[in-house]
Design brief:
Elements (H helix, E strand, L loop, with lengths): L1 H32 L4 E7 L5 E7 L36 H7 L6 H6 L4 E3 L4 E2 H4 L15 E3 L12 H14 L2 H23 L1
Parallel strand pairs: 3-5
Antiparallel strand pairs: 1-2, 1-4
């Protein structure tokens, strides 16, 4: 109970501290590609429940409608869709996406109890519906902003590898594991940030 309380106090403080940065990102998106600034999408969470996930918009407003045009560039493997240098990115979208700053609004999802800081990334409803039965085990816990999969060379492995990584995390989730992943993620994202700036 105490750990849970401390966890939410930490999330609230983190959320408040991120507001100035969020304001800068909001203004940058609005000035370079207009509105909306926030991208909303239905995702599948714990126990298969659907929720609305928030993130800063990194792509042009009609990006979803253009998926079929770029399906040949997908590196994630069906049913997921991921293009490292997606041509649909806005002027600052690539930077936000590659540094993970676009995920900051998901702190609101965490405060609502729909997500955790660390856990399997929530899949869009259309992709989650195509999961094999064994892959659905990843839905036994709340999805996270930070995924262990990112640290496992996610862009180099198959979709089944991704699901296997998520399930392994689901089965072995612990405070120690989450702290370890959190520290590694900070180092990983800091390295990405430096590379993007340089």
């Amino acid at each position: 109970m105490i750990l849970k309380l401390l966890y939410y106090i930490f999330i609230i403080l983190f959320f408040l501290l991120s507001l100035p940065l969020g304001l800068i990102i909001t203004m940058s998106i609005a000035l370079t590609s207009g509105f909306p600034v926030i991208f909303r999408q239905k995702r599948t969470g714990k126990d298969g429940k659907t929720f609305t996930m928030y993130k800063f918009r990194t792509m042009m407003p009609n990006a979803e409608a253009q998926k079929t045009k770029y399906v040949h560039l997908n590196v994630a493997g069906a049913p997921a869709f991921k293009i490292p240098d997606d041509p649909r990115y806005t002027p600052i979208g690539r930077f936000l996406s590659h540094t993970g700053l676009d995920e900051l609004p998901q702190l609101f999802n965490v405060l609502k109890g729909e997500m955790s800081l660390i856990g399997p990334r929530p899949l869009p409803v259309s992709e989650a519906a195509k999961l094999k039965s064994w892959q659905k085990e990843r839905e036994k816990i709340r999805p996270g902003i930070i995924s262990p999969w990112i640290l496992n060379g996610y862009h180099k492995n198959t979709f089944d590898d991704w699901m296997t990584s998520d399930i392994e995390y689901t089965r072995n989730k612990s405070l120690k594991t989450d702290i370890n992943i959190g520290v590694k993620t900070i180092r990983f994202l800091f390295g990405l940030l430096i590379n993007e700036i340089i």
